[in-house]
Fold each of these.
Amino acid sequence: MSLWTAADAAAATGGRTQGDWVASGVSIDTRTIRPGDLFVALRDIRDGHEFVAQALEKGASAALVSRIPEGVPDNAPLLIVPEVLPALEDLGRAGRARMTGKVIAITGSVGKTSTKDMARAALAGQGRIHAAEASYNNHWGVPLTLARMPCDSDFAIIEIGMNQPGEIAPLARMARPHVAMITTVAAAHLEAFGAIEGIAHEKGAIFEGLEAIGTAIIPEELSVTPILRDHADAAGAILVGFGRDGMARLIRAQAEGGMLSCRAKVSGEIVDFTLQTTGTHFALNAVGVLAALAAAGADVKEAARHLGDWQPPKGRGAVEELGGIRLIDDAFNANPTSLAAGLAMLAGLQGGRRVVILGDMLELGPDEIALHRAVAGDPAMEAIDMVHAAGPLMRHLYDALPEEKRGAWAKTSAELAAKAAELVAPGDIVLVKGSKSSKVSAVVDALRQSGQGPAPQQKG
C-alpha cells in the first residue's frame, strides 16, 4: 500500500527529497518500525537522528530529517526539512486534507483512550476505520495519527489531550473533525489550570476545529456543562448532550456476571448494548460514542451491537480473574472524578471483600491534600472493606478513613508492591488505581507474578 510518495511528502512539507521512495506507513520508533515505513526523526529524550541508520537497516523506505545524520550515506532515501516536528504537522494536515470520510475527535479529563477504542470497535463493518494508537493524543501524536491515515478511510477517530492551556485548539484545527466529543471535565492538571472552569474552557476549545455545521457531543449534568455549551454555540455547532438526561440518554445499566446490560435512547431510537465491564461510567461514555457515530452518519443499532466487542485496555479498568481474586486494573490514570467512578464500580460488584489499592493522584494543584482526604467521604466507601495506599498524598486519605478500613500504607508503590501477596485474599474483588506517575501499576505486576496470599491483619 502506498501512503506517501517522495513527491507527495515533499509537496506537503516543502522539504527536499533524496531518492524516489514510497512509504507504506509512518513511524517514530525503531523498536516497532516496519519495512516500508517513513521514519520521523523526532527529538525527545534522545534525538531521533541517532536512530536513522538503524531505521534504514530495518527496512524504512526513507527518513524525515533536518540533516543527514552521521553514519548515513549522502545518497540515502531522505526527506530533508528545516525542522522535523513542524514537517510532521504539515504531513498530518496534508493527510487530513486528502481524506474524504468523517472525522471524530475525542477529548476529556477521563476516558479519552477507552472511548476512542469503543468508537473504533463500534464502527466494525461500517467501512474503513482509522484510529489513534494507544494514547497518541499530544503535539506529536495527533499529527502522527493524521499522517498515518489512508486517504480512503471512511471514518477516523482522533484522540486529543492536553497538559497546559492552549494545547487543544491547534490540534483540533489540525484534525478538522466533523464531530467532536468531550467525555467529561474533572479535576485533572489543576496545577496548570487553577480551577475546573479553566479545564472546561480548554476542553471546549476542541470545537474551534469543527468543520462547518459540525456536531458537539457534551456531557450533561456537570457543573461546567454551561461552559461547554457556550463553546459549542460559539463554534456554530449542532449540540447533542449525553448522560442520564439529554438528547442521548442512558436509560438502564445493569450488572450481570461481570458485564453491563444497557439500554439507551440515541437519535430518537431505543438501542440495547452490552459492555464487557461493570463500570457505569463506561456505559455513559458508550452513549456519547453512539451519539457521535450517529452524527457522523453511522448506523446506530449496528454500532450498539458491536460495542460488546470492546474491552477496557490494560491499566484502564480492565477486569481479570487472577488466581482466587477478581482484579480491576486501573493503574494508569487517577483524579477525583475517575476515582469516584472506580469506587462506584467496585461497590456495585457482588462477591467477597472489596479491596482498594491506591497510589497518589497527581497534578491536582494547591488543594491536592484536601482532594485526597475528601475521598474518605465518597458514598461508595461505605461498601469498601479495606483500603491499602502508597504515597505521601494518599496518606491523607488513609488517615481520614475509619480505622477498620485501613489496611497497609507505604511511602512508595514499590514498597507496597513488595508485600502485594499480603494485601489480598482468595475471593477478594480488588481495584488498583492511581496516577501513572505514582507507579502503583507495580502492585498489579506483583499480584500477577505472585498470585495472592493471606489477608493482611497489620496496619501501616
Amino acid sequence: MFADFLKRLTATDPAPLPDEDARLALTALLVRVARSDGAFDDSERDRIDRIIATRYGLSPFEAARLRAEGEGLEAEAPDTVRFTRAIKDAVPYEDRIAVIEALWQVVLADGVREAEEDALLRLVSNLLGINDRDSALARQRVEKKQ
C-alpha cells in the first residue's frame, strides 16, 4: 500500500513532499518513537492523535485515521536512518524543532522515559539536523507543559 510513497520518500534526490504526504511521514515517525520501547499503549496513541489534530487542524476522527495510516507506514518503512533523513529532506528546517517537541510529547506520554526512547530521540534529532542542546530544550518545554 505504501510502496510508491516509500520509494518517493527514499529516492536519491527526493522532491519536497506534498502536505498530505509530509503529514503521513511525520505521523509515522511519531509512531516509530512510541513503539521504540516495545510498548505502544493508549496514552501514546492519544498523545499522537492530539499532536496531529492540533498541528494539522484535524477532527478526532481524522486524527485517529491519520495515526492508523501512520502505523501502517511505520511498519513498512525502512530503517530509521533512511526514513528520518528522507523526512529531513522533505520538511523545511523551521518545522524540525516542532517535530522534535512532538516526539518528546510522545516519549513522555506514558510518564516513563525509557533508554530506547532517549537513544532513538538522540538519533532522530541528529538526523533531522537538530543538535543535542536544542533537543534538550525542546524536551524541557514539553515537560513544563505536562
